[in-house]
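FAQ: What does a multi-protein file look like?

Like this. Sequence, then tokens, then the next protein.
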Amino acid sequence: MFSDTHFHFEHSVQRGADGTAALCAMAEQDCFFALDVGTKCDDLPARQSSVEAAIAQMPDERLAARAREFMRFTAGIWPDVNAIHERDNHLARLQKMIASASCDDKTLHRKIVALGECGIDHHWNPDGVDGRREDDFDQKTYTGERELFEAQLDLARRLSLPVIVHSRDAFADTMDCIKNVGYDNGIIHCYSYGIDEARAFLDRGWYIAFGGAVTYNKKARLEAVQNLLRFIPADRLLCETDSPYLAPVPMRGTVNTPANVKYVYDFIAATLGCTPAALSDTVDKNIRRIFKL
């Protein structure tokens, strides 16, 4: 029933029993599609191994088979400072890894269906998991971040793959890079901007994905978020979790899992005046379109 357009198993909290439990829950919900998203130039083999190990521990073979059917992978480089400074090397390793993975098409669930996540991040949070410091972003780093993003947009175009775009506190730079490359095919994930920015992305053909943070809104912001959700055309809307981060209400403050996407569906469906099942059908159609399933 539920689709989850973005979740991670590469983080340690999603390995072992936690990963198996998440996959079991998704299979039991009759999940149509789940995407394990890359952030490092060479993390795909480890992520695939983690997912395989989690599936192998599932006690029900029927559910395990279903998990293998709905699992998909991406490969990409998140713009951490080291990746920005070593971008030529990281990009070469990314291309080599994608080429190697493309040669192994024995099982559908190993297929890379998108490039990313990649993008621009100017949210300064030195105490956060990404250690983002404004002082680290001198002109060389700022320019390098844009070059890393544009190179991946260009790679996606050459591979005819959609792109999973990470954009946080960086709308102008994100849009500028997209315009420079001229490749408009993919998802603005964990969307965190307003209606005007959404219109700009939508006008160029992008899909908009909402995660657990959409449920966090205090009363003062609730109307603006509801108006934003109603503004997004049904054929461009996606739901996600970005686990293990940003667990939705009522699970906020806990380790997020892909199964929590149901709360995102509940919130968005209530805002749009439809049932979660109807919203899921809409999202499934959008997923089939963007990922050519």
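And here is the next protein:
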Amino acid sequence: MRSLFEFLRRYNYVFLFFILEIVALVMISRNSYYQSSRLVSWGNGLAGEWYSGVSSVGDYFGLKKENDRLAAENANLRAQLASSYIHYTDSIFRVGDTVHKRHYTYTEAQIIKSSWTHSNNYLMINKGRNQGIKTDMAVISPQGIVGVVVNTTGNFATIMPVLHPESRNSVKLRRTDLTGTLVWDGKDYRYGTVIDIPTTYKLYKGDTIVTSGFANDFPENIPAGYIEEAEAEKGSGFYRIKVRLATDFVNLSHVYVVDNHFKAEQDALMRATQELEKKK
């Protein structure tokens, strides 16, 4: 309390000045219509600037909620695409007078931890087993492929992105449907490498590389990257293709986890087929 009195005593002339200024402004505004209108206009302008600033701050902090809403909406819209359904052409598969059965569904998730500068990179999302996330599920972004779920807890999951030396993804050249494998050499997070595409076909800079659909995780035709340069590996008959990755991992915030409803059936069939081959 003593400090307050000392402060008021020291600056009493300043307070007195402001009080006299306010009194003067009030007297002027009451006795002059012009001055009164100018003061009101100035006050309204000041208030407008204040509320505009407050609104901008509110809009900024509301962006996260809006982004989450839009990401969830995009996941729902993606699930409605024709590519998310299996198409049966034989009437024997008709059920309920429809020729479609849902093949993929998408769960929106937010990246809560990520790395892209290490040799072994991982991402963490805010969805886990309680939200239906399982290991080996594919993960994509609005730009393209991201990676595959490798571990889950009740409410979180980790993803091995394409920026990992052990990552292998079946891809193809969109223009010709030639298939290959997308790998990463552990160097630049912006680029990957496509191997196993034969040199009998001509490639062009800017050609789009997409998922092949041959693996049981990623849907077909999800962008993977764009050709920067290609060189023939001596004596192999295949290209080594440098591609600029479609997904910007530095600014990645929202992803979609892909649930292939036929993955278990497809995997079981493949295992059974391999067992038969072993017995021959």
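Q: Is there any per-entry metadata?
A: Some entries carry free-text notes. For the entry above: Residues 88 and 94 are 7 Å apart (CA to CA).
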